[in-house]
């Protein structure tokens, strides 16, 4: 699904689809943001990316729910992106529950 310039993927084999999309986009690595409730799934996707030769710049697990929707979280996310060297050509992969 595409909304504006953003892409959203709903899939039964999201790990394979994420690898395909990242390669197609010619991203210079990925940063994975994930809902801690689906940490195992995020780890599987991260491992598949690594196996496919995609550089994983970093990962950030977050708590689920409305409480995370705060400017303080955006600040935390930006600090993590900067710390891990994320740049314009890095794809951000979000894994939710």
Q: What does this molecule look like?
A:
This protein is an alpha/beta fold. The chain contains three helices and five strands; from the N terminus they run E-E-H-E-H-E-H-E. The protein has a three-stranded parallel β-sheet with strand order 4-3-5, sandwiched between helices. Strands 1-2 form a two-stranded antiparallel sheet. Strand 1 and strand 2 form a beta hairpin. Helix 1 (14-25) crosses helix 2. The relative contact order is 0.24.
Reading the helices and strands in chain order gives EEHEHEHE
Residue stretches low in confidence (pLDDT < 50, at least 5 long) are none
Work out the helix count.
3
Shape: globular
Mean pLDDT: 87
Largest sheet: 3 strands, parallel
Content of β-strand? 15-25%
The largest sheet has its strands arranged as 4-3-5
Q: Which value, in Å, is the CA radius of gyration?
A: 13 Å
Helix content: 25-40%
Distance between the termini: 17 Å
Structural class: alpha/beta
Q: Tally the beta strands.
A: 5
Topology, please?
Layout: E1 2-3, E2 6-7, H1 14-25, E3 30-35, H2 39-51, E4 56-62, H3 71-83, E5 91-95
Helix pairs in contact: 1-2
Gist of the model:
This protein has 97 residues and is an alpha/beta fold.
What attributes characterize this protein structure?
97 residues, 3 helices, 23% strand, two-stranded antiparallel sheet, 3-stranded parallel sheet, alpha/beta, 39% helix, single chain
